[in-house]
Amino acid sequence: MKKVSLLLLSLLLLLSISVLIVSATGCVNNEPETATLTETYTKTVTTTSTVTTTVEKLTIIDDLGREVTIEGTPSKIVSLAPSNTEILFALGLGDKVFGVTEYCNYPEEASAKEKVGGYSGVDIEKVVAINPDLILAEDLHKQEVIPALEQLGFTVIALVPHNLQEIMDSITLLGMITGTEAAASQIVDDISQKIKAITDVTDGLTEEDKVKVLYVIWHEPIMSVGTDTRIHELIEKAGGINIAEVAGEGYPTLALEEIISINPQVIIVNDDMSLDAILDDERLSGVDAVVNGKVYTINADLTNRPTPRIVEGLEIIAEMIHPELFGNTS
User: What is the DSSP letter of 120?
Assistant: First the structure.
């Protein structure tokens, strides 16, 4: 009996020791006392770009299909296109713009910035002297300028919006890159509302109600806008028919005989060319636009540049084409 008692006592002692060991090693509880969580997230914007964000880096695919990583929020920016300059100032980033082109004339403050080149030619030495942490380029820089700047270690992003939606996408993307998302969202909302105010009216027009429009960007020979241009989109949204659509894409030249045959009801001319070039051409004197006094000029920057101001160009074109719906331009 005594042996049994000793045996039971030994078993109880061993069991107690096992419980202590299990408790000490944590095998009873599968949850650790503390945990370290590292979070990386992907933010997909309804734009042409997918953006991957971490704490200090932003990796984007720009409009040339290039993957670019931005380290931190840019504080010193160089713009190689008037359109990019306009967007930067619209986002309230004028104090972070340290270099622009000779053609960056809007807003007025942009003219006072350091000039680093023209449309395609860039003074690399001036860019190096500025030492920016972000350079904004466009399509015409892809062959030489962008590779040269990247070889020097600069971060370059190309913005190449082809239509109204892509302009808004560029604003959204640039807002994200520069930490001005709220301003970008407000600008995009404003553009969207103004476009809708026009299209809510023109979407209900019949084909007979739409107006045949000739948009002239040059007159010797007469050069117009094709179906893949932003101006074509403006004409259509404004309730017009671009008569140059028969010539396809790009910036086609039109024969006078073809223009006379189609007989445009409205002619719009870029303000960087003379209106008299159209009005004084005897061969065009019989088309409806000339006969009825509906030949107009427009600020080319409002229609050619992919900036927030393009919606102003849309509103003006809508007034020119349909004064009965949007007011008289005269």
Answer: S
Give CA separation, 321 vs 123, 193, 252, 295, in Å. Answer: 42, 20, 22, 10
| Tens of pLDDT, residues 292-322 | 999 999 999 999 999 999 999 999 999 999 9
Would you state the structure tokens that stand for residue 102, as one six-digit string? 């000779």
Q: Look at the block and give the residue holding tokens 């000490």.
A: 24
Alpha-carbon gap, residue 314 to 303, rounded angstroms: 8
Q: Strand 67-71 vs strand 57-61: parallel, antiparallel, or unpaired?
A: antiparallel
Q: What is the pTM of this model?
A: 0.82
CB atoms within 10 A of CB 289: 22
**Nearest CA among 222, 167, 217 for reference residue 192:** 167
> What is the architecture, at CATH level 2, of domain 204-326?
3-Layer(aba) Sandwich (3.40)
Secondary element (H or E) of residue 107: none
Query: DSSP assignment, residue 26?
Result: T
CATH of domain 41-185: 3.40.50.1980
Mean pLDDT of the chain: 85
